[in-house]
Amino acid sequence: MKITFPRMGTSHIAITDLLKGFGNEVIPPPPITKRTLDLGTRYSPEFACLPFKILMGTYLEGIALGADTIVSSGGVGPCRAGFYMEMHRRILWDLGYEVETITLEPPKGHMRDLIKQVRRLIHVPLSQVWTTGLFVWRKLELLDIIEERAYYLRPRELETGSTTRALRKCLSIVRSAKDMEQLIEAEKKVEEVLAAVPIDPDAAPLKVGLVGEIYVVLEPFANGDVAETLGELGVEVDRSIYLTKWTQENAFLDFFRIPADRDAKRWARPYLDEMIGGHGIINVGETVMYSRDGFDGVVHLAPFTCIPEIVAKGILTKVSSDLGFPVMTLYLDEHTGKEGVRTRLEAFVDLMGKKRVKEQGVAR
Amino acid sequence: MNVFLGIDLGSVSTNLVLLNEEAELIDSIYLRTGGRPIQAIQEGLRVLGGRHLGGLQVLGAGTTGSGRRLAALVIGADVAKNEITAHAVASLREVPGVRTIMEIGGQDSKIIILRDGVVVDFAMNTVCAAGTGSFLDHQAARMNIPIEEFGERALRSTSPTRIAGRCSVFAESDMIHKQQMGHKVEDIIAGLCEALVRNYLNNVAKGKDIRPPVVFQGGVAANAGIRAAFEKALQVPVIVPHRFDVMGAIGAALLAQETVADGRPSQFKGFDVGIRDYVTNSFVCQDCPNHCEVVQVIEEGEVVGRWGDRCGKWSASVTVPTRPKVPHWVEGAI
To answer: Stretch A149-166: mean pLDDT, rounded?
Structure first.
C-alpha cells in the first residue's frame, strides 16, 4: 500500500511523517504547479470548484509516482466537499486507476466509521502510534507558528523578500527533523533564523484579516500568494484558519460538544443564524470580530462557484456597510496570472490606508 | 517647460499625458498596445519628445494600468499605481465632489465608490468581458457601423429592442435573431447599449451604493448611446469628463507630482528611452518542480528586470529593493 494525500499549505510536511510513523509507505504529494492544475482541470467537471480540480491533479500526479491509496478528509456541514473523495474515486476508476480511498470524517456522528478507517492506516504497535501522534502534532504547531511569525515580519522587513527566504529556510529545517529530540532542536534553530530578519520595530502596518474557504486560505497556489503579496505591500495579515486550531475545534472539541467557534457564531448571529455549509457562517462572524479588534479590513477568499462563500459574500456586503469596515471578496478560479489579484489588493490597501489617515490623521 | 509625465499601459491601449506644474493637460497621445507594450511606450515617448523638441523638463513620472510595473521599469518612474487609485485621483481633480466613478475600457470595467473624496469601495469585472469596449467594437464591425457613429445611431431609436445582456455570446446570438426578425438597426444597437448597461449594473456594480455625482470615463464613455442608457437606468445625470479617454494617465501624472512634492529628483530616464534597444524574453526555470516562467527585460544588452519566479531568486538577482521609509500607501494620501 503506497499512500498519497492532498497538499494544503505546509501541512504535507507533518502528514508525511504521520503516515510513515504509522508504518505506511508514503508518496508525499508533489508541489502544486500549472501542470497539476492542467491535469486536474482536464478530468474534473467544468463547474467544480478550484480545490476539487487541484486535488484531482494532485492525485493523478501521486498515482504517476506510484501511489495506490489516497487518504483525504471528509467535510463539515452541508457542503459538496463532503462528497469529493467519492467523486474523485469514481473519476479515477473511470480513468483506469483502481485506487483505494480512505475518507476520514469528523468524529462527531461518524466515530465508528472513523475508527474503522484509521485502523486501515495503522501498522505499528499502539505505543508507536502515541509517540508519532505527539511528534506530528508538535510539528504541525511549529509549522503554524512559522507562518504566523512570517505574517508579522513581512510588513516590517527592511529588505523585500527576506522574510520569505527565512520562511523557506525554516520549512526545510522542520522537514528534516525526524524525531522529538530533533524537533526541539529545530524549534530553536527556527527561532534564530526568524530573529535574524532585519525589521523596522516602529512600523505600524495596516492589519488585514484573511477569511474564506479553508483550502484556498491555506494553499498559496490556490490564492495567488495573497498573504505574501499583502505582506510585501506593507500589510500585516492575520489568518482566521490554522490547521491545528481548526482540527482541535472540528475534530476534538466538537466531539465533546464544546462549541469552540462559538464566538464567531455568536457575532454572526445578527446576520446569519444558520449553518450554510463550508465556512460561510464562520467568515461572517470572524469579519465582525476583526472589525471589533481594530483591524483595517478583511480579505475574503472564495472559490468560484462555491455556494457557502457566495452566500457569505452577499452578507458581508451588509456587514461592511453596517460597520463601515472594508471587506473585499476575491473569487479564485483557474487563472494563474497574478496581476489581477495584485491590482485589486493594491487598490484595497490604498483604500484602507487613506481611511486610516483620514480617521487618525497620521499614518504611523 | 516643467512637466509631469503619466503613462497608462493597458491591455488594449497605451496613453501618455503631460501635465504642467498647475496640473493642466499640455499634451496627450493614444496608442494601440497591440501586444507589444514596450514598443508602445517607446513610440509614445518618441512622438511626445519630437513634438516638444528638447523643451521638456520632466519633474516626475508615474505609471498605471495592467502593465504599470513594466512601464515603470522601462522609463524609470517615480510611482507605479493601480488603476483604481489613478482613476479616482484624476476624477476627483475634475469633479471634486464625485461619489461614483464608472470606468469602462477595452478589456475591463470597474466601479469606484467615493465618500468625502476618499475611495470607500470598488469592484472590477472578474470572469466576463461582456460590456467592455472590445465587445462593442466587435458588434459594430459585424453590423458594418463605424464605432464612432454607433452611439449617435443608438440615440435615434424610439423603441429599443430587448437584447439579452448576461453574456456577450448570448447577446450576440440574441442580436442576430432580432435582426433576422426584421428589427431596425437603430433599435437593435440601442437595445444593445441598454443590455450592456444592465450587465454592468448587475455584475460589476452589484451591491454598490451608487450616488450622484456620477462620473463616466474610459474609452466607452465616448459612446453617446451608452451614456444615455446609463442616465435612463440610474435616473441621474452622468458626467463625462472632458478627457474621459486618458483619465488613468492623468491620474498617474498627478500621483507622480505628489510623489516628488518633497523635492526628491525624478527617476525618469529621459525621452531617449524611445530610441534605446529593449528586448524581452522568458525562460522556464528547471531548478524545482514549480517550473516558473521567468520574464526578463534587457536594456542595451543588460538585464534590468526579472520577474515571474515564485522563490524570488531570479528577481532578487537583478535588484535588491529596499523598503522606503514611509509605507507606500501613504504616498498620495489626500
So the answer is: 92
